[in-house]
Amino acid sequence: MLTVILMIILFVFLIFPHELGHFIAAKSFGVQVNEFAFGMGPAIFKKQGKETLYSIRAIPIGGYCAMEGEDTEESDDNPRAFNNKKWWQKIIILVAGAAMNIFIAFIAMTIMAGVGGTATTTLADVAEGGPAYEAGVMAGDKIIEINGKDTGSWYDVITYLDEGMADGSAVDVTVERNGGTETFSIIPELNEQGAYKIGIESKVDHSPLLAIKNGAVSTKELMGALLTTLKQLVHSENIMGEVSGPIGMAQIVSQTSSLGGLYFIYLVAVISLNLAIFNLLPFPALDGGRIIFVIIRKITGKAISDSVEAKVHAAGMVLLIAFAVFVAGSDIIKLFK
Predict the structure, then answer these.
(1) Quick check: 218 and 273 in contact, CB under 8 A?
(2) Which of 36, 80, 144, 322 is the most exposed place for a label (fewest CB within 10 A)?
(3) Whole-angstrom Cα distance, residue 270 to residue 275?
(4) 26 vs 29, 82, 241, CA distance in Å?
(5) pTM of the model
(6) Which of 219, 253, 197 is nearest to 113 (CA)?
(7) What angle do CA 321, 327, 333 make, to 5 degrees?
């Protein structure tokens, strides 16, 4: 039951913002939106707005923002139809869904940074009797250099310490204290795990501004990692064995739920960015495929009609559904292995 609830929450955070992005962008450019729906299947709630029908549907997987003229085979005379808008407006509307998914990932990573805190170069504690303590380093000192290298983050501190004392050599640690600076030569000692340490602990900062900064950096880094993974996947000989659909996602959610809330929040960020990347792929029926057609039709004029584009996207949707069925089958097979 917990997995089912978390899956619903996950889809709410993934699908609703995506469609909301399209909706907000469409409305901002005066596009007529006929229906804005969350979920698929029969409607369990409907409310007719001044122009748009708002609905919640029975199956909380998917959703849509139905714009006038988006999938018609020929342009109509309605100046507010999507297919009659300027090319750059169409692109912004199509990109807006993925942009919202990236924003959700940023929010998730910011929450993680705020709750978990960010390690700073200021020391919260220096182990009594340890190498750093014996050398004269004190809690409250801010490490600014390791062996002459500037330390802008705690990651830098760890990296430069590991490099400097890899063979047990002394490291020069420069700290900022009471408005001045002091440098200490510290000889590390082996701990029980066989690693060289000097006995210092970072002060963790939970400030909102730092959380926002680190949330943005983490989102960018995660996006880069996912793009790298996608490139590797394209060249993989076993693509079907390395992708997952809703069934595989449910397994991951089930495993994550036992690890705590922050892991689930991280999962939201990962899947949200995956959804953004997937939707921007240049494949018919996806936002990326539609963007390609907008650009091609801008260049070629009327060489491609609305009818032709609609048929290509329809074919793309059939292929996507077939792919989803194969992925679901692969997920089921994995369950029995």
Answers:
(1) no
(2) 322
(3) 9
(4) 5, 8, 38
(5) 0.78
(6) 219
(7) 140
What is the rounded distance in angstroms from the CA atom of residue 208 to the CA atom of residue 117?
A: 10
Tokens read off for 179 = 């408005």
Report the pLDDT value the prediction gives residue 1, as an integer from 0 to 100. Answer: 60
Helix (H, G, I), strand (E, B) or coil at 57: strand
Q: What is the pLDDT of residue 237?
A: 61
- The torsion angles phi and psi of 281, rounded to 5 degrees, stand at -65, 140
- Which residues are catalytically annotated? 19
Contact 208, 111 (CB under 8 A): no
Q: What pLDDT is attached to residue 239?
A: 54
Burial class (CB within 10 angstroms; exposed 0-12, middle 13-18, buried 19+) of 144: middle
Which stretches in the chain have pLDDT values below 50? none
Tokens 């988006």 correspond to 70
The residue among 153, 141, 132, 134 whose CA lies nearest residue 179 is 141
Burial of 249 (0-12, 13-18, 19+ CB in 10 A): middle
Q: What does the pLDDT read at residue 27?
A: 95
Specify the residue for token string 């199509």: 94
